[in-house]
Amino acid sequence: MRLLDRIVQFVLVCCIAALAGYIIIRGISIADENGLFRNTPLLSAVYNKMEKWTAGTYIPVLSYEEDQEEENKWQELSQNVFPVYGYAVRQTENTTVESSGEYELIVRAQAQAEENKQPRQMEEFLKEQSGTLDFQYLLNNYFSMDMTTTIDPERLNGEKLLAMDMTIEKNSQVPQILIYHTHSQESFVDSVEGDESTTIVGVGDYLTQILSEKYGYNVIHERGVFDLVDGVLDRNVAYDYSQAAVEAILEENPSIEVVIDLHRDGVDGVHFVTDYNGKPAANLMFIAGMSRTADGQDIEYLPNPYIEENLSLALQLQMKAEETEPTLMRNIYLMAYRFNLHLRPKSLLLEAGTQLNTLEEEMNAMEAFAEILDKVLSGE
């Protein structure tokens, strides 16, 4: 019986010790979650010391790096040692898939955009800037930036962007403009189910017609479907599918200089509408892909050698719209991904209205867009 008593006592002691340990650990965890260790200088110092000791004991490479370099190298190296941690911090996991999550990011981004920018005449703007185009002024008045990305004065150099030549020599004998729809299933408040002509594809048909018949461009309209998989709406890989199709078209038609991915925005409860020649027209917005994260790191697996050219075309169109149709455009939206804008220097992602716009408003907006596009491409 003595042996049995000892066993029982040992088990009880172990249980009590485990329970006590759990209570202590849980208490420390709760205190840390509430900032006790970080907000109290003495406790913070002890906490940091324990943290470094633990890292030095179990992950010596991190401790060594911290001893050799400045303190912030610890986090930098940890991102390399632990790829999952690096992804969580920088959201730049090395993958070849661009589309994953892009649609949800766009939808969230639109809701954050600055929608009430006061129109400014180009002459007034240039006069105020005394011959210079200030980075902060441009950023505040012509752009909205998603929290996932960033931009600097070197990349957003107004004088350089507006000095770039965005003109093309008009030639109706060879294809010069390509219009396509990564999200071909986007529709409007009065779209007819099953009638493609009442969706964003129909709007693309009308833009193609205007650019061809009124302005004399040779336009290819790619009407392919990239956001349906086995008959089910799936936008997670739409950009990968559309990229493959567009690359094939560009290879077959190297004369194409302008590529436009035409979308319909999706902002809950917002009806973007303005006036164009006395008619209601949907507001338009360009999305620019920075291929850069919020911490200023380029997304290496999404290279885009044409970021400046993309920005130049969007900015020149934005300012040309201010001269002729000052209420047409919403701010250019800067985002982290690439959105296939690397396929040509003169590439655009154009968002036309929202799901609450009518088909008539969309068509009228295409008339306005075609007008300003022709002015920029022809150098007017």
Radius of gyration, in angstroms, nearest whole number: 28 Å
Kindly report how far apart the N and C termini lie.
Answer: 103 Å
Approximate strand percentage: 5-15%
Question: Count of helical segments?
Answer: 14
Overall morphology: elongated
Write down the secondary-structure element order.
Answer: HHHHHHHHHEHEHEEEHEEEEHEEH
Q: What is the count of β-strands? A: 11
- Helix and strand content put the structural class at alpha/beta
Major sheet attributes: 7 strands, mixed
Assign a percent range to the helix content.
40-55%
Average per-residue pLDDT, rounded, comes to: 80
- In which order are the strands of the major sheet placed? 1-10-9-11-6-2-3
Low-pLDDT ranges: 37-42, 54-97, 110-123
Write a structural description.
- The protein has 380 residues and is an alpha/beta fold.
- It is 47% helix and 12% strand.
- The protein contains 14 helices and eleven strands.
- It has helices spanning 2-33, 36-39, 41-58, 60-68, 73-81, 83-90, 102-112, 122-128, 135-142, 158-163, 200-213, 238-252, 307-324, 359-378; strands at residues 143-145, 177-180, 219-221, 228-229, 232-233, 258-263, 273-276, 279-282, 284-289, 332-335, 346-352.
- The strands form three sheets. The chain has a seven-stranded mixed β-sheet, sandwiched between helices. A two-stranded antiparallel ribbon has the order 4-5.
- Helix 11 links the parallel strand 2 (177-180) and strand 3.
- Helix 3 (41-58) crosses helix 4 (60-68) and helix 5 (73-81) crosses helix 6 (83-90).
- It is elongated and about 105 Å long.
- The protein starts with a helix and ends with a helix.
- The model is unreliable at 37-42, 54-97 and 110-123 (pLDDT under 50).
